[in-house]
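[job 4471] stage=fold_predict status=RUNNING
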Amino acid sequence: MGQVVVITGCAQGMGREVTKILAAKGVAVAGFDLDGKGLLELEHELAGMRGGHHFEKLSVTDRKGILKFRDAVLEKFGHVDTVLSNVGVGFFGPLEEVDLEKAITNFEINVIGTAAVFQAFIPSMRERRQGKLVAVASMVGRIPFPFESIYSSSKFAVEGLVRSLKYEVAPFGIKVALIEPSQVATAFAAKSHVIPPADSPYHARVVRFSKKNSEILKSAHTPETAAQLIVSILEQKNPKLHNQLSFKDTLNLKLMAILPSSLTDSMLLRHMDIAE
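[job 4471] inference complete, writing structure tokens
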């Protein structure tokens, strides 16, 4: 059996494109998503490819379901080389006005979902003394953005989770990595951007922020381009812990680390057109 890769959130967006690229290379791919229709369409696209595949309609919040999925994948393919935790949902709004019950769900999906998938596959990797655990985080997990306090904090948590996990699994030959996209031209952000009511004290700034964000998306990576970059990271024997998808993102992180916070704060607010 050749390489086997597990991808969560594989029915659409970057996850779908990564799955297609790997399958075309002869890699066996397994994954799950809540989008059953998307999974069926993906299965049809991959029909006849030599690596094989296994897809299930499943929520990343379904702990028992994830364990059953793991068992089915290991039974079919014998082992898993790489797990890409790609499932994630956005969350947008001024903290003063957000629904904290919905915020809990965001953390459940983005953070605990990543932990659950990794936890499921660590034992088999540990026994083989090899494997890679890769999480799609976000640039806002390193550089927080206004009106994204819940989402940013969930991605900060994913960063902390993976960085801590690195020390735990390294003695067993398991590598970990973070992929930190900034903007990718999908419907991901649009789904979460809800404008506050007109009488909200945040209304005008959120409108400007959202408009600017839409402009930035026009020049962002397409899912296909982002997927090519992600696959190149997955294929590395020893991927870096932190991986951005463009030189500009890497440069921004370095600048944020060395410039005074007063200057970087001002740059960010001007960039998103919400400076007062």
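[job 4471] summary: The first helix runs from residue 13 to 24.
[job 4471] exit 0
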